[in-house]
Design a protein that fits this description.
heterodimer, A: 318 residues, alpha+beta, four-stranded antiparallel sheet, globular, B: 840 residues, eight-stranded mixed sheet, four-stranded parallel sheet
């Protein structure tokens, strides 16, 4: 079985115009342990030194680092670095891949006195309206082209992913972090977050369960160009619940099923559940942070960070 | 068994009841249809028959007056512009018999226990969902479910502490549950308020029934909060958390906080450190063990719940998760405020309690199930359509009232989002008499609903023997809404025996009740007084400065122009005028000065400063006398409409100054000198000290010729003309002016005077707040005392001027440092850091 290893560096810097006396932050920057993903080493550098630091799992099982400052500060710098190892993700069995989508929809529906298998109940948590994802007939209508009667769920979901990739344009200027999904849906453009929210809205609007996946993706520098530090970004994609299999991941931004190039931080019902950083400041005002993300395959690590500007060292062989 | 009436009295009763006309197809609380009034109404009806309509109207007036007076007493923040309707209470209470009450209280206690267990299940193992006892949509599909609260085991072991239920009585006399209030139920305080007033209006029937007392219920609630909270060896501190004075039931929060003896706090009064909740007081941080909250779930913690909440306490959920604070009710309990749940409760009751549900819920069909949706659509005319969840903004719709296009739109919406709707059977509410006071028709008939309350105690649920009877607005109206105010009734429950009367309200003050006011003053109070001091002093200084400038605008001689130039510089340093950037074409001075008076968009303008002042004052309004408050409200009035000429400006500024001087008087003479007062005084002094330094530096930093032209306005703006004139009796000269404004310890407008006073006030603040090392200005004072004025006798004292200016700049920085330090130590309780900036 093949595996690949990546080094990820995610830097965030807030510079406040006014002194902040007290602030709290929740960080969701630790990659999840998964059957196909191993978190080999993780280092979280926080400056200035927080007055208190705690770590716990949220209700979706994502690791949260909670930090609290009670002394004056005018900046906050967070550098998350980790080594991660990916293997091939499992694929739905032939029989799981044949189940019509309507069957799945009906199995997720409540019937009085019918017990839910634990995985089905867990899936229903991702079947309803959430903070950023509405349920509406317009999404169901759009999805109808993919969700033909009797079509297997896996096939229909793949088709929906390709439709979104076909119909929507990637446009980093079209939306902002909190632009409502409706707006991106109408404009037919946006970024990975919008595409994922739209796809989730479609899946839920036809009665299926869908998750928002947060993480990173390996990018390929243009032909003939060198890989640069800070040239990447966080990424988002989608997972749909397939009975007798689990969660099938789909990346509508790139029209592919994530495999050896998608690194998972965690998941939630939508972006709001899995924001990498969320905080409350007393004073300081609202500030856009400077963010730099670098994903590098193990074999390129030494040349990219030749001047040794990382917290984690190169992995020892094997 | 109905005891028999004597013939004479029966006549009398019939007299008053002759005016009462209950509708036959509804239940009548009085029982006047058929067999005659029930026995527990008898003492009240007898009293009514003994009196004339006029004398009863006098009682009704006394009731209205008492409510109005208490409104004045409790609703200290009443906003004249707010749409707060006065609370109205009917003269006639609703009376419930002892047997019926026994059944009702058991039924309510059972439901409270059931809902508490449902919450524990939903936020815990979710067996109800796993086993199909209730649909996941009722939990995951609504905004009331607080996802981050999953897995939390609440301190004290319970989710519900205070529960309220809305009941209606059907024509057959049976009670039905109309709604559950599990989050932060309101009304218990209003019920208590009604009781205090109505029991005084009818002392005899109150005593003769006898009516069960409410005080024990509140005592039980209060001591249970303390007893169930995670106190360890400490003595418990419970607080009442309010969203603030703009909440429609703020009156009740103030009332209950006083009655229960709990500090009334807002989110910003609390802070979480190391997963522990603290109250910020001027005396330091005080651990909070229990929070009786009136703030909705989502707003309680902007860090983990609604990020847009400005009313909550960042990090609260961490403290809850750590079991360090009891929340009444637990965060997330709003999930049960849903009529969609009703249909599932009977089976859930059997599963969780092992017993059937005693009191039924009104028949409700949650449309999320296909057969239910079909039924509701088929029987639309017989049903009320309601939102399934409390978080949805939608008014109930009577099916028979919607016709045509409106009906089609409703049906379409129900098809699109079936799980958002509930169809509910129409209940014909019971009816009771209300007092109208008209001679021919003293009584009217109104539909009523009953809200009952239950409190968790270590020995089980205790139901308030009474409640809030809510009355429909008009005859024949079936909807009772009491979002703000509205008519209510006291609710009398017949006691089985006469209990000794107890009340949490002491009849008279005792010596032990006398407060010295030095403990637990919320930091917010000190902070607002401090900024009130700084803003009022700043307004006064700015007004003098601008007035001096306007006075010199019309002069065309060189002296006026030079003076004006200096004033402009001073105003720029003050922040009153926007500093003109280099190379930019400056706006003409007259226009800028006018903006500095009344432009609210410009933060340095007098209008802006006064607005900030009024905000600070409104936060501490209960500490200000009526005269002080009146002056605060008046001080900005001359600025609107905005003056458009220098003359108008001067007149307006004169008026503002007069009020500023009154405020200074109030500050010194009109406010209780407790721990918070000293912050007002220090705020004023620090501001004046900094402003004086700024002003004096302007001529000191100028060249010799311009300097001389600035002395006159300097004395004027520093309000020291009289001091100088009586002392020196000559035109302003540098040496004399500097002595007057810098060194003269007897002039309250001198740097020396303010520094010396601060060196007395700061230690006093330290003493009153228990700070071992209060901020100190000793070094500044020493340096000032060492100033030698002899060099200023020289003809060209430029070096001395520069040295003094530097000292004054340092003193001003010191004043700001002290202000920051006070802010940190006493108000926000954080630490100083000498390296707040990112290192390179």
């Amino acid at each position: 079985m093949t595996f690949v290893r990546y080094h990820v560096r995610h830097e965030t810097l807030y510079q406040y115009d006014q002194v902040v006396g007290e602030s709290h932050h929740l960080l969701r920057l630790t990659p999840r342990e998964l059957p196909w993903q191993r978190n080999l080493e993780h280092h979280l550098a926080i400056s200035p030194e927080p007055s208190a630091r705690r770590s716990f799992l949220d209700c979706f099982g994502n690791r949260i680092t909670k930090i609290h400052f009670t002394a004056d500060h005018e900046y906050l710098e967070i550098i998350s670095e980790f080594w991660v190892e990916l293997r091939d993700r499992p694929k739905p069995s032939a029989s799981a891949a044949k189940v019509p989508w309507e069957t799945v929809r009906d199995r997720l529906r409540y019937r009085a006195d019918r017990k839910f298998p634990p995985d089905h109940l867990q899936a229903t948590a991702f079947r309803f309206v959430s903070t950023n994802v509405p349920i509406d007939s317009q999404y169901a209508a759009y999805a109808r082209e993919a969700f033909l009667p009797g079509r297997p769920l896996v096939e229909a979901a793949d088709a929906l992913m390709r439709m979104i990739h076909r119909d929507f344009r990637f446009d980093a200027t079209a939306t902002e972090t909190f632009t409502p999904v409706e707006q991106a849906f109408k404009a037919r453009r946006g970024v990975c977050q919008d595409f994922s929210h739209i796809m989730i809205a479609c899946l839920r609007s036809v009665g299926l369960a869908a998750r928002y996946m947060s993480g990173y993706i390996l990018t390929h520098p243009p032909e003939g160009k060198e890989r640069l530090v800070g040239a990447d970004a966080t990424h988002a994609w989608v997972a749909v619940f397939v009975p007798d299999f689990g969660w099938l991941e789909l990346d509508p931004t790139n029209a592919l099923r994530p495999d050896l190039e998608h690194i998972t931080l965690g998941w939630g019902r939508d972006f709001s559940d899995i924001t990498p950083m969320r905080g409350v400041l007393l004073g300081g005002g609202d500030h856009e942070p400077e963010i730099a993300v670098t994903v590098v395959p193990e074999e390129e690590f030494a040349s990219l960070y030749a001047d040794g500007e990382t917290y984690l060292e190169e992995l020892s062989p094997g | 068994m109905e005891p028999e009436f004597t013939v004479a009295k029966q006549h009398a009763v019939i007299d008053i009841l002759r005016q009462y006309h209950p509708v036959p197809d509804r239940f009548d609380e009085l029982g006047s249809i058929g067999s005659g009034p029930k026995s527990h109404w008898r003492p009240l009806l007898q009293q009514l028959n003994l009196e004339s309509v006029d004398s009863l109207n006098i009682r009704a007036q006394a009731v209205a007056n008492a409510i109005a007076e208490d409104g004045v007493t409790y609703n200290v923040y009443e906003d004249p512009l707010g749409d707060s309707r006065p609370w109205e209470v009917d003269l006639l209470p609703l009376v419930l018999g002892a047997d019926e009450w026994q059944w009702l209280s058991k039924a309510v206690a059972q439901r409270a226990e059931l809902l508490d267990r449902v919450l524990a299940d939903l936020y815990g193992e979710q067996s109800l969902l796993k086993e199909g006892f209730m649909p996941p949509a009722l939990v995951y599909g609504q905004a009331g479910f607080q996802w981050p609260c999953q897995g939390i085991e609440p301190a004290g072991g319970r989710f519900l502490h205070l529960y309220a239920v809305d009941l209606a009585r059907a024509p057959d006399g049976g009670w039905w549950v109309m709604a559950d209030r599990t989050q932060a139920p309101s009304g218990a305080g209003y019920a208590l308020q009604n009781r205090l007033v109505i029991s005084r209006a009818f002392p005899a029937p109150f005593h003769n029934l006898p009516v069960t007392n409410l005080a024990e219920f509140f005592q039980g609630f209060q001591s249970s909060l303390a007893g169930m909270s995670p106190v360890g060896a400490e003595s418990p501190l419970c607080v009442l958390l309010t969203p603030g004075r703009f909440n429609e039931t703020y009156f009740e929060h103030v009332f209950l906080a006083r009655y229960l003896g709990l500090p009334l706090v807002e989110g910003q009064d609390l802070t979480v450190r190391d997963d522990t909740v603290y109250l910020k007081t001027l005396q330091g941080l005080r651990r909070v063990h229990a929070i009786y909250r009136r703030l909705d779930d989502g707003f309680c913690d902007p860090l983990e719940l609604r990020a847009d909440s400005v009313l909550g306490i960042p990090g609260l959920l961490g403290a809850v998760r750590a079991g360090k604070v009891l929340m009444a009710n637990a965060l997330g309990s709003g999930v049960l405020e849903s009529a969609a749940l009703f249909g599932f409760l009977p089976e859930i009751s059997k599963k969780l309690l092992g017993s059937p549900l005693v009191m039924p819920s009104v028949a409700s069909w949650w449309c999320g199930e296909k057969p239910a949706l079909d039924y509701v659509l088929k029987h639309l005319d017989e049903l009320v359509i309601k939102p399934a969840f409390a978080s949805m903004r939608m008014e109930p719709v009577f099916g028979y009232q919607v016709k045509g296009a409106e009906r089609d739109a409703l049906i379409k919406k129900m098809h699109a989002h079936p799980h958002a709707f509930v169809g509910q059977e129409l209940v014909h509410l019971s009816q009771a008499p209300v007092w109208k006071g008209e001679r021919e028709q003293p009584l009217a008939t109104r539909s009523i609903g009953l809200r009952l309350f239950a409190a968790a105690t270590p020995s089980g649920w205790r139901v308030m023997p009474g409640g809030l009877t809510r009355v429909a607005m008009d005859e024949g109206v079936e909807v009772i809404s009491m979002q703000r105010g509205g008519l209510s009734k006291d609710t009398w429950v017949q006691a089985r025996y006469t209990a000794p009367s107890t009340s949490l309200i002491k009849k008279r003050l005792q010596v032990s009740d006398l407060l010295d006011g030095e403990r637990d003053t919320p930091s917010r109070v000190g902070e607002n007084l401090f900024w009130m001091g700084r803003h009022s002093e700043r307004a006064e200084g700015t007004a003098r400065l601008l007035r001096a400038a306007f006075n010199r605008l019309s002069g065309h001689d060189q002296a006026s122009e030079e003076a004006l130039l200096g004033l402009q510089q001073a105003a720029e340093h003050f922040g009153t005028l926007p500093e003109t950037e280099e190379d930019a074409v400056p706006e003409p001075l007259p226009g800028m000065l006018l903006r500095a008076v009344s432009d609210l968009k410009f933060p340095g303008s007098i209008a802006s400063i006064l607005q900030a002042l009024l905000f600070n004052a409104s936060q501490v309004r209960d500490r200000l006398s009526a005269d002080n408050w009146h002056t605060l409200n008046r001080v900005g009035k001359p600025l609107s409409p905005a003056p458009t000429t220098p003359d108008q400006s001067i007149r307006a500024l004169n008026l503002v100054l007069l009020d500023c001087i009154s405020l200074a008087g109030f500050a010194m003479d009109d406010i209780t000198r407790d721990a918070s007062w000293v912050f007002l005084v220090i705020g004023r002094r620090l501001e004046r000290l900094a402003n004086l330094c700024t002003l004096i530096c302007v001529p000191l930093f100028s060249d010799r010729f311009s300097r001389h032209a600035m002395l006159e306005w300097l004395l004027e703006v520093a309000n020291s003309e009289v001091t100088y004139r009586t002392r020196y009796r000559r035109t302003p000269e540098l040496l004399g002016v500097l002595h007057t404004l810098v060194i003269d310890a007897s002039n309250p407008h001198s740097v020396m005077f303010q520094l010396r006073q601060l060196q007395k006030d700061l230690p006093e603040m330290g003493l009153k707040t228990g700070q071992l090392f209060p901020p100190d200005l000793g070094e500044s004072l020493q340096r000032l005392q060492a100033v030698d004025l002899h060099p200023f006798e020289r003809k060209r004292p430029d070096k001395a001027c520069e040295a003094l200016a530097e000292l004054l700049c340092d003193i001003r920085s010191e004043a700001y440092r002290v202000s920051d330090e006070i802010q940190r130590q006493s108000f926000i309780h954080t630490r100083y850091s000498d390296r707040p900036v990112k290192p390179d």
